[in-house]
UniProtKB/TrEMBL annotation, chain A:
Organism the protein comes from: Seonamhaeicola sediminis
Pfam families xref list: Fer4_8, LUD_dom, LutB_C
Keywords: 4Fe-4S, Electron transport, Iron, Iron-sulfur, Metal-binding, Repeat, Transport
InterPro entries associated with the record: 4Fe4S_Fe-S-bd, 4Fe4S_Fe_S_CS, FTHF_cligase-like_sf, Helical_ferredxn, LUD_dom, LutB/LldF, LutB_C, NagB/RpiA_transferase-like
Taxonomic superkingdom: Bacteria
Protein name: Iron-sulfur cluster-binding protein
From TrEMBL, chain B:
GO MF term list: oxidoreductase activity
Origin: domain of life: Bacteria
Annotated GO CC locations: cytosol
Lineage of producing organism: Bacteria, Pseudomonadati, Bacteroidota, Flavobacteriia, Flavobacteriales
Record protein name field: (Fe-S)-binding protein
Domain Cysteine-rich: 8-89, 133-226
InterPro entries: Cys_rich_dom
Pfam family membership, one: CCG
PANTHER family per the UniProt record, alphabetical: LACTATE UTILIZATION PROTEIN A, UNCHARACTERIZED PROTEIN YKGE
Regions that span the bilayer: none
């Protein structure tokens, strides 16, 4: 189903759309305030972008350096070329520990690899411990946002969900009560977990350690209580030096939620005594994206979610309308590289307004890449006949002044003379909520010619 | 010796030519008042933007070449539509970069920017005693950098505001969301009808809540979309291109 279809579905409930839009706009405004309060913010973005560009052009070396340093610290390092390999590696580690219960802090990579269903089908319980993630997990839905996974749910929705799954009493969506209940529920899961899985925000090449950013401290809690820690990361998560964290940690939280820094920035540099630590480094299509020059910079992404919060389309269509692990503007430039056919409507789910590129802390030219994907899609994918013939004809007509003068007259004639019911039929998407422009007696050409004659 | 007048090629985008001749007329009259030598090349059609934005850039090369052919002789190319000018500046990279193509790309200016930056004028002697809301079109704002963007750190500036602030009697109203997209987006308006209309509706509401009587902007494609919504819902706002306001002496 195309983005437009799903978005139209989401728009059937206008009150909900308004609420969703306002909630995210609030986050975007917080981001503006907090970013603009940092002296040299634009310079910081520039730095972030340049460091990431350097990483991408020396990725092989940094990865090898990272692996060597991690191993020196006693961490087991694994390489996975795709999702399947990644899932098998994780599963093998779990089997070795005879683990039946796993707690997992937020990781978009494991979402991308569909790790949860993979492990669940092997009899392993996986509990997402980030509150938002736990909510969507209970609802059996994918996250609709990468930082605020349950942003599409109201507190009343959560109330009902908790009644059903956690046996809470109705509270009319009282957030304090609900959070308290979630905490109790999760505490039990933390205490009984065999292994903790986390994502990785930054993998530092010169130390071999990883940094995980959370607001709830759930990554630390999980790792410290379990026997083993598995950190899963995409190859692009590398940064060269520990000192570069000073750039990225400042950018990340401000861009994501407007906080100066995430509540927890947890550094995992080696296993605790008597425990194991594993890092799984995953490609899963990233080197392919790296090879596409026009789209390479999409791998700068630090998953802050700012492009979603600012996107006027995302705010009004909801994350699920994108039908991809990473929704919103960044998802729309990443997904076509994974499956051009399936995601071919996403680069068109944009007005190319450019707000995403303006907020992106690592300066990805998102809207320009959307434009470029459109060109690729039209070349490589079968296009709807009507759209294609209209645009191809336009290409010919508009390159021939004579033809254009005739076509212009015809179009104006049609607009002027077709009765409203004809224009506002089902095919006329313009006319559903908008009037067509009123047609004047003459066009500018006519007027100009007349003036020349009389002048 | 008499100073040679700047030679301007007037670019009237296709939809303005066909549907909003009054905007073309206001633009031309305004430029003439400003003492530049304006010429309207009559073989012009379009800048190719509708095709490029839809992914049919390849098919638009003929249009782009025709554009260059029509406008290569002028000192400046001026048009009342930020998005078209943006397209010429940024997407004519698909053509071979001959000296003519480069010249056309460098010398193409959106009307307001031309007046403020090139001619160095802001007070055009206009008078328009109304409460006005300015819609900052994305391609003009974020693309051509006609003003500062709410996302980006830095001093506030706005080319259109510079001009409107000098208009006698005009009261520029402050909006809740200063530079949110209106949802037009070319074929987006049709292929993503639901979101496009909702975005437009929200934008209009912001102007209504801010007591705006006349909604204006430097890109008539956005205005066409917003006007469509206003007319459908019979809302009490008039839509005018900024050239019409700057050219008025009510
Ligand atoms: S693309 Fe940029 S703004 Fe969007 S999530 Fe990634 S880093 Fe953040």
């Amino acid at each position: 189903m195309s983005h437009a279809t799903k978005a139209a579905e989401f728009n059937k409930n206008e009150a909900k759309v308004n609420w969703h839009d306002k909630a995210l706009w609030y986050v975007r405004e917080k981001r503006d305030k907090s970013a603009h309060n940092v002296q040299g913010w634009e310079y910081l973005r520039q730095l972030g972008s340049k460091i990431k560009a350097n990483v991408l052009s020396n990725l092989d070396e940094y990865l090898i350096q990272f692996e060597a340093n991690a191993k020196k610290n006693g961490i087991h390092v694994h390489w996975a070329s795709d999702a399947e390999e990644h899932n098998n590696i994780v599963n093998d580690i779990l089997s070795k520990h005879n683990a039946k219960k796993v707690v997992k802090s937020k990781s978009m990579l494991t979402e991308e690899c569909h790790l949860n269903p993979f492990l669940e089908s092997r009899g392993i319980e996986v509990v997402d411990t980030d509150l938002g993630e736990r909510i969507v997990q209970l609802a059996q839905e994918p996250p609709s946002h990468i930082v605020l996974p349950a942003i599409h749910k109201t507190k009343e929705d959560v109330d009902e969900l908790f009644q059903e799954h956690l046996g809470t009493t109705p509270s009319q969506g009282n957030p304090e009560y609900l959070v308290g209940e979630a905490r109790k529920h999760l505490r039990d899961k933390f205490l009984n977990a065999d292994v903790a899985i986390t994502g990785v925000n930054f993998a530092v090449a010169d130390t071999g350690g990883v940094v995980v950013c959370t607001n709830e401290g759930n990554a630390d809690m999980g790792v410290h209580l379990a026997k083993a820690h598995i950190a899963c990361m995409g190859i692009e998560k590398i940064i060269p030096k520990e000192k570069h964290l000073g750039v990225f940690l400042r950018l990340l939280a401000r861009s994501a939620t407007g906080q100066p820094i995430t509540t927890y920035s947890s550094h995992f540099n080696k296993p605790e005594d008597g425990k194991e630590m594993h890092i799984v480094i995953v490609d899963n299509g990233r080197t392919e994206q790296l090879s596409r020059e026009d789209f390479r910079a999409s791998l700068h992404c630090i998953r802050c979610g700012a492009c979603m919060n600012t996107c006027p389309i995302y705010r009004r269509s909801g994350g699920h309308s994108y039908d991809y692990t990473i929704p919103g503007p960044i998802g729309s430039i990443l997904s076509p590289g994974k499956d051009l056919k399936k995601h071919s409507s996403l680069p068109f789910a944009s007005t190319l307004c450019g707000s995403c590129s303006n907020v992106c802390p690592v300066k990805i030219n998102i809207h320009e890449q959307l434009y470029k994907w459109r060109q690729v899609i039209v070349k490589e994918q079968k296009q709807p006949m009507v759209k294609k013939s209209i645009l191809k004809t336009a290409g010919v007509v508009l390159s021939k002044p004579g033809l254009y003068r005739i076509a212009g007259k015809t179009a104006r004639f049609m607009l002027k003379n077709a009765p409203k019911f004809m224009i506002y039929n089902k095919l006329n998407a313009w006319g559903k909520a908008r009037d067509l422009p009123e047609v004047k007696g003459q066009n500018f050409d006519d007027w100009y010619k007349k003036r020349q004659k009389n002048g | 010796m008499q100073k040679k007048k700047i030679k301007v090629g007037l670019f009237i985008p296709c939809y303005i030519n066909q549907l909003y001749p009054q905007v073309g007329i206001a633009t031309l009259e305004l430029l003439e008042k400003l003492d530049v030598d304006v010429d309207y090349p009559q073989r012009q059609t379009c800048c190719g933007q509708p095709l490029g934005n839809s992914g049919y850039e390849e098919d638009s090369k003929g249009i782009c070449n025709l554009f260059v052919e029509n406008f290569k002789e002028y000192d400046f190319i001026v048009g009342p539509s930020g998005s078209c000018i943006y397209h010429i500046k940024h997407h004519f990279d698909i053509l071979e970069q001959t000296p003519e193509v480069k010249r056309v790309r460098n010398n193409a200016f959106e009307l307001c920017e031309f007046i403020v930056k090139i001619l160095g004028k802001t007070d055009l002697g206009a008078s328009f005693p109304h409460k006005v809301g300015l819609h900052k079109s994305c391609h003009g704002l974020r693309g051509l950098k006609l003003g500062s963007c709410s996302e980006v750190q830095g001093e506030h500036y706005s080319t259109e505001e510079d001009l409107l602030n000098q208009v006698r009697g005009l009261e520029l109203m402050s909006l809740n969301r200063k530079d949110e997209c209106c949802g037009f987006g070319g074929t987006f308006a049709v292929f993503e009808e639901a979101i496009s209309s909702k975005m437009g509706k929200d934008r209009v509401q912001d102007h209504l809540s801010s007591d705006v009587e006349v909604l204006t902007g430097a890109d008539h494609s956005c205005l066409m979309h917003l006007e469509g919504i206003i007319n459908r819902n019979k809302q009490p706002i008039k839509v005018m291109h900024i050239a019409e306001i700057l050219n008025s002496s009510l």
